[in-house]
C-alpha cells in the first residue's frame, strides 16, 4: 500500500479528460472556508481524526473492489494515506476530503483528490 501511495504522489499533472500533460504552474489549493455543506453532507479537509474511518474502509469489500484501497487496510497504511493529504493541504498541492453528515452524525471518509487544472 505504501508503494501505491508513493507512486500516486509522483504522477504528472494531466489536463482533465485529455491525458495531455500540462506545463502551467499549479495554483495553491486551499480548503474552502466555510466548509462545503449542502445541509446533508459536509466536506472537511482530511485530518488525523479521520484515520480510524479511513482504516475502516479496508473492511468494506466493495471499497477494495472498486478503488485502490486494499483490504484489509492496516492502521499504518491508513495513517500514511491521510498524512499524504494533510501534507498536500499544508503545501497546497493536493486536497482530500472527509465526508461528514451535516448534523454532526456519521463520518464517511472519502479521499477524493483535487488538483488545479488549466482550462481546456
Task: Please describe what this structure looks like.
32% of the residues lie in helices and 12% in strands. The chain has a four-stranded antiparallel β-sheet with strand order 1-2-3-4. The chain is α+β, with helices and mostly antiparallel strands. The N and C termini lie far apart (33 Å). Helix 2 crosses helix 4 (75-91). The longest helix has 17 residues, at 75-91.
Concise description?
By secondary structure, the protein is α+β, with helices and mostly antiparallel strands. 32% of the residues lie in helices and 12% in strands. The longest helix has 17 residues, at 75-91.
Keywords:
32% helix; globular; 120 residues; 12% strand; disordered N terminus; alpha+beta; 4 helices; 4 strands; four-stranded antiparallel beta sheet
| N-to-C SSE string, H for helix and E for strand | HEEHHHEE
- As residue ranges, the low-confidence spans are 1-19
Mean pLDDT: 75
Rg, alpha carbons = 15 Å
Strand order in the sheet with the most strands: 1-2-3-4
Determine the strand fraction and express it as a percent band.
Answer: 5-15%
What overall geometry do the principal axes of the alpha carbons give?
globular
Number of strands: 4
Q: Give the number of helices.
A: 4
Largest sheet: 4 strands, antiparallel
Q: What kind of assembly state do the chains in view correspond to?
A: single chain
Question: Which structural class is indicated by helix and strand composition?
Answer: alpha+beta
Helix content: 25-40%
Straight-line N-to-C gap: 33 Å
Amino acid at each position: 500500500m505504501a508503494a501505491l501511495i508513493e507512486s500516486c504522489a509522483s504522477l504528472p499533472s494531466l489536463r482533465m479528460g485529455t491525458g495531455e500533460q500540462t506545463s502551467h504552474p499549479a495554483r495553491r489549493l486551499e480548503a474552502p472556508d466555510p466548509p462545503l455543506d449542502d445541509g446533508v453532507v459536509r466536506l472537511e479537509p482530511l485530518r488525523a481524526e479521520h484515520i480510524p474511518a479511513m482504516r475502516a474502509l479496508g473492511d468494506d469489500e466493495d471499497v477494495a473492489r472498486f478503488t485502490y484501497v486494499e483490504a484489509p487496510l492496516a492502521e499504518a497504511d491508513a495513517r500514511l494515506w491521510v498524512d499524504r493529504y494533510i501534507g498536500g493541504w499544508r503545501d497546497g498541492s493536493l486536497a482530500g476530503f472527509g465526508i461528514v453528515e451535516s448534523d454532526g452524525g456519521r463520518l464517511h471518509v472519502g479521499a477524493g483528490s483535487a488538483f488545479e487544472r488549466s482550462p481546456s
